[in-house]
Write a structure and sequence with these properties.
By secondary structure, this protein is of the alpha+beta class. It has three domains: 2-53 and 272-452, no CATH class; 68-258, no CATH class; 461-673, no CATH class. The protein has a six-stranded mixed β-barrel. The chain has a six-stranded mixed β-barrel with strand order 14-15-20-17-19-18. Helix 10 packs parallel to helix 13. The longest helix has 38 residues, at 270-307. It is globular and about 100 Å long. It starts with a helix and ends with a helix.
Length: 690
């Protein structure tokens, strides 16, 4: 032990004698260690431990309805109840996200992100309450208006007040009683988000006008289903059990074509699916950077050993063993790596925050957990130890066997040639690894540029401002009132100086959420066997295509007169015409979407991108706003003559003129918003370029 302390003291003194070399080595290694540990923190948050508050989260599965022709849909509430009642290999729970207008006392209404859950949700996940209780099956069965707060939201919004239990709050105009606070670090089961509060699914009629229909209609597939496998059960066994349950439920519900179910590991969905390949590539490149640093430091240590060869020869000549010399040199390497490891942790703190800054500004409650916990520290320690061996072992072995006689005479012996060849090999390795790293970075940048160069079918969206709102947060439930609010808002916004066009739409294309679909029938078109007739659609007001820069190919745009007169009209894209109306005149053709209402086609527009930059051209329907189709939540699209964000204050004032309660949510440039689908590639390109 005493000899080890001597080796450490000697190592520190040698570092002090050569501060420049020590600083270069520590910074080179520290940057490599820090980069590797930073990527590991993201892997930890996205892949290795994405649900830290859920015990045994690796046993969770996601269950979806099997769509005809491939793909999946969400699940209807009646289907879920049948599946839950019949499943024996897996415990199933349902959930859905919703924006809620929360009012507490005299404080103005504010937006809260809620999760509607089945009564067994917390029990199946094995998540406890930090305060009070969690939701239970009796809350679902009795439709109790009760709420459980997220732990982080409780601390931020309610200042961690323990007396909050029993308090009454208002959600979308209905009174709910707070009964508990969820466990710390629990944010729901949508990986990457952290919800503010949780309410029973069966209270949906209190929160949205069509809540009763969502709970009764098998065609309204809007809910996610998560399940926990029973002990010894497998994903394949759960799939084999749920599939016939789904088919029987559909047949019992009178569906002409009963649909099956798809069961897959929960980790295969949401954020991890998109981030796993990017993070894997980043970790590989960070490892290459660390190897380059190791080769660089090994070369420095070899050069340093050349200056100490006489010292080593003398020690060997007076009886020191080669083992003793190797141990001392490895101690120096470990000490150097330890200093680099400390610097690497500093780099990790900085790198983690820098990567968080690269996250897109999405209108959702992002809740990624990238803390530097014991696993990250253990990983950094192992990387540091491996680094010490990687750069220290070869120089130590090489320096511990000098040619004694020539070295003691200050002559360069034959060993110098060997050292020269080794140093040359290390230089070649550095160059090769650097080239691989540069090529990897180039591939990421090229991928990013390919995304940016995709023709989205929309022109000039860098001059379009998006502002969200949700009339449910104000308690407005009447469809005709919703339409009048949209009309009044558009009249005021269009009259503002600097506004070229404005429109409202249910969905923003190329955003973080999927475009809605509906079962569709087209007069004169006979679907092929098992053809998926769920067609994507949006609900838009007048001037939508001029605002978003989508080209009108035939007919006309949706007009304000259509909205005012509740006209049953739609505009379709070119792919819709080619697929369903081949050889026919599109204008005047009739379609039916999800109901009995017949909608008349009045225009055809160019096909654009809707869900993702890599999607195949999709048929799309744009339905006119009406009292029958008015969505309570919509996005205002405003085309500006200049910088769109400069209109923010004026548009906010227009919102207030319509209603002081009308939420003004997430103003942002549409060009920035539509980069969200390729943000993993953006993160990779920026990190590799750095």
């Amino acid at each position: 032990m005493e000899s080890l302390r001597q080796d450490i003291r000697f190592a520190l003194r040698s570092f002090a004698r050569q501060p420049a070399l020590t600083l270069i080595a520590v910074m080179s290694l520290g940057l490599g260690i820090g980069a590797t540990a930073t990527v590991f923190t993201w892997l930890q948050g996205f892949v290795f431990n994405p649900l830290p508050a859920v015990p045994g989260w690796g046993r969770l599965v996601a269950v979806h309805t099997r769509a005809p022709g491939g793909g999946t849909w969400d699940v209807s509430w009646p289907d879920f109840q049948d599946w839950r009642g019949g499943a024996r290999t897996v415990d199933l729970a349902a959930w859905d996200m919703m924006q809620l207008g929360l009012r507490d006392g005299g404080v103005p209404t504010e937006r809260a992100w809620g999760m509607l859950v089945s009564g067994n949700y917390f029990e199946d996940l094995d998540v406890r309450a930090a305060l009070g209780r969690v939701l239970r099956m009796e809350d679902e069965q009795r439709r109790e208006p009760v709420a459980v707060l997220g732990h982080g939201y409780w601390q931020r919004r309610f200042a961690g007040d323990s007396s909050v239990i029993g308090r009454t709050i208002t959600l979308n105009g209905s009174a709910f009683t707070i009964v508990g606070v969820a466990a710390p670090r629990f944010g729901g089961t949508y990986i990457g988000l952290s919800l503010n509060l949780y309410v029973p699914m069966t209270t949906m009629p209190l929160l949205t006008p069509d809540g009763t229909q969502f709970l009764q209609d098998r065609q309204r597939r809007s809910f996610d289903v998560v399940g926990r496998l029973k002990p010894e059960a497998t994903v394949a066994q759960a799939a084999a059990e749920v599939e016939p349950l789904a088919l029987r439920a559909g047949a019992a519900g009178g569906l002409a074509q009963p649909l099956g179910a798809v069961v897959r590991p929960h980790s295969a969905i949401d954020a991890p699916a998109a981030m796993r390949p990017v993070l894997g590539a980043l970790l590989a490149v960070a490892g290459l950077v660390l190897l380059i640093a190791c080769a660089n430091v090994a070369n420095l240590l070899l050069a340093r050993a050349m200056t100490r060869r006489r010292e080593f020869a003398v020690r060997l000549a007076v009886g020191a063993s080669r083992y003793r010399l190797v141990r001392q040199l490895l101690t120096e390497s470990v000490a150097l790596a330890a200093l680099a490891g400390v610097f690497g942790l500093v780099v990790t703190f900085w790198g983690r925050d820098a990567m968080l800054a690269l996250l897109p500004a999405v209108p959702y409650p992002v809740g990624l957990d990238f803390r530097l916990d014991g696993r990250v520290l253990l990983f950094a320690t192992l990387v540091t130890a491996a680094t010490a061996m990687a750069f220290g072992l070869v120089p130590a072995l090489r320096a511990s066997r000098p040619d004694l006689v020539p070295t003691l005479k200050d002559e360069i012996g034959d060993g110098a040639g060997g050292r020269g060849r080794l140093q040359a090999a290390l230089v070649v390795a550095q160059v090769a690894l650097s080239l691989v790293t540069l090529v990897s970075a180039g591939l990421f940048v090229r991928s990013l540029e390919e995304y940016r160069s995709v023709d989205t079918g929309m022109n000039g969206i860098d001059r379009v401002l998006l502002v969200g709102t949700d009339l449910r947060l104000t308690g407005i439930a009447n469809d005709s009132v919703q339409v009048s609010v949209v009309r009044g808002l558009l009249e005021r916004v269009r009259a503002l100086p600097g506004v070229e066009a404005a429109s409202a739409a249910r969905s923003v294309v190329l955003g973080p959420g999927p475009i809605s679909t509906a079962a569709t029938r087209i007069e004169g078109y006979a679907p092929r066997p098992n053809e998926n007739m769920n067609v994507s659609y949006n609900v838009v007001s007048g001037d939508y295509f001029r605002t978003t820069g989508i080209r009108l190919m035939e007919g006309r745009d949706v007009s304000d007169a259509d909205v005012a007169g509740n006209a049953s009209v739609v505009v379709v894209n070119e792919v819709f015409v080619r697929r369903y109306l081949a050889g026919r005149t599109a204008i005047g053709a009739r379609v039916n979407m999800g109901g009995d209402e017949r909608l008349s086609i009045v225009g055809v527009v160019a096909t654009s991108k809707y869900d993702s930059y890599t999607e195949d051209p999709l048929p799309m329907v744009f339905r006119a706003y009406s009292a029958r189709s008015a969505p309570p939540a919509f996005a205002l699209h405003v085309r500006a003559a200049g910088e769109p964000l400069a209109l923010t204050a004026a548009i906010r004032a227009a919102f207030a003129e319509v209603s002081a309660e009308l939420p003004f949510l997430d103003p942002r440039n549409m060009a920035e918003f539509t980069t969200i689908p390729y943000w993993p590639q953006k993160v990779g390109a920026v990190m590799l370029a750095a």
